[in-house]
Design a protein that fits this description.
The chain has one domain. The protein is 52% helix and 3% strand. It contains 6 helices and 2 strands. Helix 1 packs parallel to helix 6. The longest helix is centred in the last third of the chain and has 18 residues. It is globular and about 40 Å long. It starts with 6 loop residues before the first helix and ends with a helix.
Length: 149
Amino acid sequence: MNTIFDLSHAKGILMRIDQLAQDSQPQWGRMDVAQMLAHCTSFHDVATGKSHSSRSWLGMFIGKFVKPILYNDKPIPRNMSTIPTIMIVDKREFEVEKEKLKENIMTLQRNGPKTCANQRHPFFGVLTSEEWGKGIYKHLDHHLKQFGV
């Protein structure tokens, strides 16, 4: 399984981000490309503890049983609901969000797995840095495929 903490995997993601254009269209979902980039950055903020939200009651009940969806080899289902703190509905500037996400990925890469060690996901609960690394990669891959790259 790929992880954002592997340099070659991170470089591959960065190259795919560079293939996006302001007019890239989603193959599914409601977000435009700039909103998707901001959404991915917000997900990283959860992973690194910069953003917090309360744990949903459903997450408390079933989160630990379904959390492998975040880091197994199966694709994330299309149009899966997201946690409210990373739902982006306002307009965003494409180039600004693109650079923010790229810098965020490079910072994760520089700082390594300890950045995400034992941070709590609002639905899945506490994740190890290994689970976060795989989950971040899988989340980015899902959304880049959403926009055809």
